[in-house]
Amino acid sequence: MLSKEQIDSLITEATSWLGTKYHPHARVKGAGVDCAQLLIGVTEGAGVLSQVTIRQGYSTVVPQGTEYVDVILQYCDEITENEVQPGDLALYKTSHGWMHSAIVVRWPDYVIHATEMRGVIATHGNEDILRGKPRRFFRLKGGK
Hints:
3 helices, globular, two-stranded antiparallel ribbon, endopeptidase fold (from Nostoc punctiforme), alpha+beta, 144 residues
């Protein structure tokens, strides 16, 4: 489980990515990122995880089976919605599968995620483009 300081660091780092444009497979704060790379950039930038590994050339549109969830489960434990706290992850099912993620700042009122049309934004976890999407929740297992 993460300490309060690590959670605060995650939230601060996630907030610093707001406004970054969307770009598939990129992870450059202020320049371009997708939702998977945002999770990596935030956890590494906050010093909570280091060297998260994902497959080069992963698909941002067509799912590769359970690949996205499998990678998240390497670093996180699945939790219930009632357990969600700041710093946890929300994973949303899109028309392409379990393919969109967000960092929880305050559930459900405030999540940070990267969207193709608007880049990295803060929205309500159940509204706007996330309205009606099935969701799952995850908590980081611990540091580095």
